[in-house]
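Below is a filled-in request sheet from our internal design queue. Each sheet records the structural input a requester submitted and the sequence that came back. We keep these sheets so that new team members can see what a complete request looks like end to end.

REQUESTER: design group, bay 2
PRIORITY: normal
MODE: inverse folding
CHAIN LENGTH: 524
BACKBONE (tokenized):
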């Protein structure tokens, strides 16, 4: 019996010391939420129209390839500003053949034929309302997931990322502890659309570039601005423009990984690796275009344009005027994936910690006052036995702070409310046990029998009450956001800590006292 009590005592003391040590000092070990620590509050709007344009561009390329594969002549194709794709066909027979090939697209698009001069026809394709709504919804959902992935890469504890507003295309982002809003905005809101295309020509100005092609952009190409070179001559802006193919050979969706590295001049760069299928496709493309230049396009800017010297399969590098921080940030957004549409910031607030310090101070006072009242009540009502409940209360607070530190969960203002709530709940189990002990003592049982019976009879009630509360707290944590999750976390930790201190520690204290002092009368 003594060995059994000694082992339990060592276990309880070791557990409390270990968990308590993990939370010491609390200022360094326990993370604070936005409402206590301060941070960044952002509201973003997803410009879903850009997602629709991107979908139309991909659709135009696919349908143009379809017509080409079936030898149907096309004079021109383009994505119009009114979110439509337009094909100009040279004859009625070409129009009829194209309509026949487009019949599988009628579930997604409205098709409007229009007679032009001579025998020419124009086919105008627009999204059906159901398809347009679906694409907008997917764009917002994908943007939400991409932003969440980027925030996870930043390592922010307990961020809030959720859709808000009546229109459904706004996203709320709250980042506790982040003090550099410009960097956070750049990482969160950057589209990061990576594309690998073939580069045909470049010139210092757009006009000089187009002059080589009779003032017009050749069909199948577009003009993009180039990033300034690392070492521009003195007095030279370094601005240049490139003529690149419209067709995208590899996109950011084909990336498997992206990491910060260094180029041949030991300057910061971003090394990326493609998926297996993209690598095979890229290998065939580069083998076919050896000694030509490859444009590495990021957000419609040509970051670099290396020459293809040999067949390239699964690896590549993005070089430019990057600092180490910029290269790290770019690798973060590339790993997290490109945003499906542009986003713009509607609201930005940097929340200072002043309110948080007041909240922590007031919350601490509430915990101390509430705890002191509970301690005095237990001593007054249960006399010396109340000391056992008071010890359990102190250990409960230590265990809660330790579990918060170990889990990495952030302490929020509602979380402090959860701690105050568990201060009362922590002694609830002891009250049930003590009342059962008093009933057994009145029934004439010995002190030892009353203690054993009191704990045994109260066990089922305590477990039942706490399990139902844990279930409710888990639901709050699963479906709640931000502050609600903070409340749920402290409630869950508090329940488990109170059950351990009431059913294990309190019983252990009674058993040691009865074993050591052979108590004949219990002060309860």
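RETURNED SEQUENCE:
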């Amino acid at each position: 019996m003594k060995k059994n009590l000694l082992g339990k005592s060592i276990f309880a003391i070791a557990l409390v010391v270990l968990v308590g040590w993990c939370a010491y000092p609390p200022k360094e070990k326990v993370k604070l939420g936005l409402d206590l620590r301060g941070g960044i509050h952002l509201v973003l709007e997803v410009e879903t129209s850009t997602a629709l344009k991107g979908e139309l561009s991909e659709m135009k390329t696919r349908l143009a390839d379809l017509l080409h594969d079936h030898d149907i002549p096309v004079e021109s194709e383009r994505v119009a500003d009114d979110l439509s794709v337009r094909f100009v066909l040279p004859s009625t027979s070409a129009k009829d053949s194209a309509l026949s090939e487009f019949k599988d697209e009628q579930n997604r698009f409205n098709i409007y034929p229009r007679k032009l001069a001579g025998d020419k026809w124009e086919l105008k394709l627009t999204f059906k309302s159901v398809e347009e709504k679906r694409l907008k919804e997917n764009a917002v959902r994908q943007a939400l997931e991409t932003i969440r992935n980027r925030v996870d890469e930043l390592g922010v504890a307990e961020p809030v990322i959720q859709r808000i507003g009546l229109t459904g295309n706004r996203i709320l982002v709250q980042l506790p502890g982040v003090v550099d809003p410009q960097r956070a905005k750049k990482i969160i809101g950057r589209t990061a659309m990576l594309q690998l295309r073939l580069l045909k020509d470049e010139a210092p100005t757009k006009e000089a570039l187009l002059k080589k092609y009779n003032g017009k952009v050749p069909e199948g190409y577009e003009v993009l601005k180039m990033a300034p070179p690392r070492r521009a001559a003195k007095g030279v802006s370094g601005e240049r423009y490139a003529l690149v193919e419209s067709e995208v050979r590899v996109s950011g969706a084909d990336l498997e990984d992206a990491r910060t590295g260094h180029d041949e001049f030991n300057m910061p760069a971003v090394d990326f690796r493609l998926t297996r299928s993209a690598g095979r496709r890229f290998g065939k493309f580069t083998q076919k275009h050896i000694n030509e230049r490859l444009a590495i396009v990021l957000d419609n800017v040509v970051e670099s344009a290396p020459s293809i010297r040999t067949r390239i399969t699964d690896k590549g590098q993005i070089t430019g005027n990057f600092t180490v921080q910029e290269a790290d940030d770019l690798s973060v957004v590339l790993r997290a994936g490109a945003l499906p549409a542009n986003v713009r910031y509607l609201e930005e607030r940097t929340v200072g910690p002043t309110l948080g310090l007041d909240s922590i101070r007031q919350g601490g006072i509430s915990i101390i006052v509430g705890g002191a009242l509970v301690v005095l009540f237990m001593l007054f009502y249960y006399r010396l036995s109340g000391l056992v409940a008071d010890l359990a209360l102190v250990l409960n607070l230590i265990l809660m702070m330790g579990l918060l530190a170990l889990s990495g969960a952030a302490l929020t203002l509602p979380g402090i409310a959860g701690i105050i709530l568990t201060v009362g709940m922590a002694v609830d189990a002891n009250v049930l046990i003590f009342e059962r002990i008093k009933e057994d003592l009145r029934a004439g049982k010995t002190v030892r029998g009353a203690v054993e019976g009191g704990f045994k009879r109260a066990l089922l009630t305590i477990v039942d009450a706490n399990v139902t509360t844990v279930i409710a707290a888990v639901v709050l944590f699963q479906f709640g956001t931000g502050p609600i999750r903070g409340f749920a976390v402290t409630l869950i930790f508090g329940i488990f800590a109170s059950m351990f201190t009431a059913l294990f520690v309190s019983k252990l204290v009674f058993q040691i006292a009865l074993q050591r002092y052979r108590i004949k009368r219990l002060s309860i």
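SHEET NOTES:
- Residues 49-130 form a domain with the Endonuclease I-creI fold (CATH 3.10.28).
- The longest helix spans residues 483-517.
FILED BY: M.R.
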